[in-house]
Design a protein that fits this description.
The complex is a heterodimer of chains A (554) and B (320).
Chain A: H1 2-31, H2 47-52, H3 55-87, H4 93-105, H5 108-119, H6 124-129, H7 134-137, H8 140-166, H9 169-176, H10 181-192, H11 194-210, H12 213-218, H13 227-236, H14 242-267, H15 291-317, H16 334-341, H17 343-377, H18 383-391, H19 398-409, H20 422-433, H21 435-446, H22 450-458, H23 463-490, H24 495-500, H25 508-517, H26 521-551
Chain B: H1 4-19, E1 24-28, H2 32-46, E2 50-54, H3 57-66, E3 75-77, H4 81-89, E4 113-126, E5 149-151, H5 158-171, H6 173-184, E6 188-189, H7 193-202, E7 207-212, H8 213-221, E8 226-229, E9 237-244, H9 251-261, H10 264-272, E10 276-277, H11 300-304, H12 306-316
Parallel strand pairs in B: 1-2, 1-3, 5-6, 5-7
Antiparallel strand pairs in B: 3-9, 4-7, 4-8, 4-9, 4-10
Helix pairs in contact in B: 2-10, 5-6
Chain lengths: 554, 320
């Protein structure tokens, strides 16, 4: 019991520091317009003005529309692919996993830029095939298309892992009892995978309503604006409107809360325990004649989601000039040479980003398990609050988290503060990315039977031993997947970094952004390519190492 | 137990912060290479190291605003003249007239701010676009340019707002007729400066209305098929203000830094990035003030109307 109290206490403090502090200060800023000047004068004076803005309703509806469409599209692609991968003996399964990971390694603003350069008039597609898709790209549909391709991996990995974990075993029981293959899938396998699917779709919704770069680059010209673009505008338009931006952020957070509540309601009161301690390594089912059509489907998705933006990025990185287009004479390594010549700066940025990414993965991984355990396996009061707090940051645009962290940590009363050190970037990444490990661990824990822990207790193990020896190993696959995602996203995060970067610290995303600002698209793309290659390699090595450990039964 | 590493990281971070107390802190928007060279040169000359925070003007100002109760910056370099005027009005800035500012034209300095360099707003035209070479703003409203023009969003680009405001102050209703014509010609409003430029480089668009000239000149020097055209009827030459925060604890070093940027060596660095040096007696790598027909400099009343102006413009182009 005491150990449980300790765990809950640790979870509460971690969430308090990582999430409640910045969010709390944003809330304060929304209430007290002069908070940043250190004054609590005129509370709510600005609220009427912000809320009376007729654009507000439109921005909110647009945001919901975008979130819903991206969720539907990502589900339509991610669930079938994840199911195929999780349940069946798919040719080249590991290869598809790696390739599906790549879209996640490409920062969303880079992939949006890549798609623009590929599809706009006189873009690469027109240079190759004589056709372009300008009008379709710069539209609502274009934004949904590009965003969906960026987030499909979240659904794919969650679905394939939970399907594999719940296994085909129970469905086989259904078959033995006379159910048809489809019936067993609809009635047994799919419902059992629901926590994983719902968790990943909630993440996708949150990511879609929070993302800034893609709607700003693609939809603004179609007259389609969302809350995030409105928030960004209040932060960059002179005079800066911190209180107004804070109010809009809270609306965004409220939208995500609604989705969260809905997701919880959908899942509560049902049992999802499939990991019971009985031998479970279910065999994957043979696909038979469907082997090659399934592989072709994967190839088609990967070609669009992974190779199309990569091609645009690489083409730009290897071109001497952008106006020179795709031509042999325009091929050049100058951009890579420039990066190499800037040696220390570029490699320093890479090292900083990789370390911050790894740090964020470790901190959020530990915190994520802790929070998910307290929420799923203890009977603590206020579990739902902990759970909600852990998913909130995913809806907060990077720029809001950035301002929240400045307001929270740049106060004169702190004896020591991480502000203006790399520590503030770590805090920002941990805050923004905590939802991944929490969601993934949460879904996995729901599938682990309580009797496993009880059995350990009966044999004399304390809470900590049971957690470390029984639950953690069972959680490991989902947790590692989530931590790798954290690593990937943290090592390329841009918006919060732009605001919070301590003086003198350079990250990869800042390096790339500065190249773009200077008009050096080619150099920015070259650096992006190097980074994508490097982070993919790091993640591959980590995955291989873990698989080997597991294979040895360690 | 699980948050130990975090506390460790925080403590370590705080130690790092304490070790940097002596350096001068500069917040800057603008060419990345430039501030790095200026910082290195300044350290060589004075022994004072310079910590740089670099972002776009919006992020620099948002950070200043969020830090207001406990400011960190000593020197701020912005790309928007308005931000200097506003900070001055709020009483945040230290009055300082650098001896090296004597050769900076009067309209590009004030009691507590002075231009680091200047840039003109121009037409950046893709020479391979198959469109006739434009010579004035109005050319971009012609049928040949239908759907082929980008303009940086004045809400996101301080320099684009300067152009908008300068055109309206100089031409009044004529300026709005021009904007309406451009709107009818499907001119696109495209984010900040870089986002407006890239489609022109690749050829999706033919020209930028109101490109920041030094970036375009840099692109041209790298071999892009781009030409920078200063419109015949006149354009805005925008200053990039440097200022010292009153809250600075290193005011002497901050003044030395301003002096240094305005010195021969500092201005040569500015010139190397294709900006117009603030000091008129320093050699530039490009057309300077006297070569460009400029619109009259705006007075305070004209500047004061910018919020309403921006509102009207964003409504015209359907921005939210």
């Amino acid at each position: 019991m005491r150990a449980n109290t300790l765990l809950v206490g640790a979870a509460v403090s971690a969430l308090g520091i990582l999430v409640a502090m910045p969010l709390g200060f944003v809330l304060l800023q929304a209430v007290f317009p002069e908070l940043a000047q250190g004054s609590l004068a005129r509370p709510l004076a600005h609220l009427a003005g912000v809320l009376a803005d007729p654009k507000l309703v439109e921005l909110t509806i647009n945001t919901l529309k975008l979130g819903a469409c991206v969720v539907l599209a990502a589900a339509a692609i991610g669930i079938p692919l994840g199911t195929l991968r999780g349940l069946f003996d798919l040719p080249g399964a590991k290869l598809w996993d790696v390739l599906m990971l790549v879209p996640f390694m490409i920062p969303p603003y880079i992939s949006a830029l890549g798609w623009i350069m590929l599809l706009q008039p006189r873009g690469y597609l027109q240079q190759l095939l004589g056709i372009h898709a300008g009008p379709a790209l710069f539209s609502f549909g274009g934004v949904v298309f590009v965003m969906t391709l960026n987030v499909v991996p979240v659904v794919y990995f969650a679905v394939s892992r939970t399907m594999a974990a719940s296994g085909s075993r129970l469905a086989l029981v259904g078959r033995v009892c006379g159910g048809g293959a489809w019936r067993c899938f609809w009635r047994i396998t799919l419902p059992l995978a629901l926590p994983g699917i719902a968790a990943s779709l909630l993440l996708v919704f949150a990511m879609a309503i929070e993302e800034y770069g893609t709607p700003a680059a693609l939809a603004a010209n179609a007259g389609f604006f969302v809350l995030v673009t409105g928030i960004e505008r209040r932060f960059s338009e002179w005079p800066i409107d911190l209180p107004g931006a804070s109010v809009l952020s809270l609306i965004l957070v409220a939208l995500a809360m609604l989705a969260f509540v809905w997701q919880r309601r959908m899942l509560t009161g049902k049992g999802y325990e499939t990991t019971t301690g009985k031998p479970a390594r279910g065999e994957t089912l043979p696909l038979g004649a469907w082997r090659w059509p399934a592989a072709a489907l994967f190839a088609a998705i990967v070609a669009v989601a992974t190779f199309a933006p990569l091609f645009a990025i690489a083409a730009t990185a290897f071109s001497r000039t952008l106006s020179g287009g795709l031509a042999i004479g325009n091929l050049s390594l100058t951009h890579f040479q420039a990066i190499a010549a800037g040696g220390s700066e570029a490699s320093g940025a890479l090292a900083t980003s990789l370390m911050l990414g790894a740090g964020a993965a470790i901190v959020t991984g530990l915190t994520g398990v802790l929070v998910a355990y307290c929420v799923v396996k203890t009977r603590t009061r206020g579990r739902a609050v902990l759970d909600a707090l852990a998913v909130l940051p995913n809806t907060m645009p990077g720029v809001v988290v950035g301002v929240g962290l400045i307001l929270a940590w740049n106060q004169a009363f702190w004896p020591a503060t991480p502000y203006n050190t790399w520590g503030i970037l770590l805090l920002a990444y941990c805050c923004l990315l905590l939802p991944y490990p929490v969601r993934y661990a949460h879904a996995a824990l729901m599938q682990i039977g309580d009797n496993l822990e009880a059995a350990a207790r009966v044999h004399g193990a304390g809470t900590v031993t049971a957690l470390a020896r029984i639950l953690l190993p069972l959680l490991a696959p989902s947790l590692v997947a989530a931590m790798l995602l954290v690593f990937a996203v943290a090592s390329r995060e841009l918006v919060a970094s732009l605001l919070l970067a301590p003086t003198g610290v350079q990250t990869v995303s800042l390096f790339i952004w500065r190249q773009f600002e200077q008009g050096s698209v080619g150099q920015g793309m070259a650096m992006s390519l190097v980074t994508v290659a490097l982070t993919t390699t790091v993640m591959l090595l980590a995955t291989l190492w873990l698989e080997r450990r597991q294979a040895r039964g360690v | 137990m699980k948050i130990k590493p975090l506390i460790g990281a925080l403590a370590f971070g705080a130690m790092l912060a304490a070790g940097q107390a002596q350096a001068l802190t500069v917040y800057t928007a603008g060419p990345a290479g430039l501030i790095k060279q200026l910082a290195d040169d300044f350290k060589k000359q004075t022994g004072v190291s310079v910590d740089v925070f670099q972002a776009d003007t919006g992020k620099v100002m948002a950070r200043l605003e969020a830090e207001a109760s406990n400011p960190k910056a000593d020197v701020v370099i912005s790309a928007s003249w308005d931000s200097a005027l506003d900070l001055h009005k709020r009483g945040w800035l230290l009055a300082y007239a650098s001896p090296n500012a004597a050769k900076v034209p009067a309209e590009y300095k004030g009691p507590s701010y002075v231009a680091q360099g200047l840039s003109a707003l121009a037409i950046a035209w893709n020479t391979k676009s198959g469109t006739p070479r434009p010579t004035d703003w109005a050319d971009l409203a012609k049928p040949e340019f239908k759907g082929l023009v980008n303009m940086p969003d004045p809400a996101q680009s301080g320099t684009a707002l300067e152009l908008l405001s300068g055109l309206q102050s100089a031409r009044g209703a004529d300026a709005w007729r021009l904007f309406a014509d451009l709107k009818r010609n499907d001119m696109a409003i495209a984010g900040a400066n870089a986002q407006a430029m890239n489609p022109v480089l690749q050829g999706a668009k033919a020209a930028v209305f109101g490109a920041v000239d030094y970036v375009a000149l840099g692109n041209q020097a790298k071999g892009e098929s781009i030409e920078v055209i200063f419109p015949a009827s006149g354009t805005v030459i925008a200053g990039r203000p440097m200022m010292i925060l009153k809250s600075s604890r290193q005011q002497q070093d901050a003044k030395r830094f301003i002096d240094f940027v305005l010195s021969d060596a500092g201005q040569a660095r500015v010139a190397a990035t294709y900006l117009i040096p603030a000091r008129q007696d320093v050699q530039a790598k490009r057309p300077v003030i006297k070569d460009i027909k400029s619109l009259p400099v705006e007075n305070e009343a004209q500047r004061a109307g910018r919020q309403a102006l921006l509102e009207r413009f964003t409504t015209l182009f359907g921005r939210k």
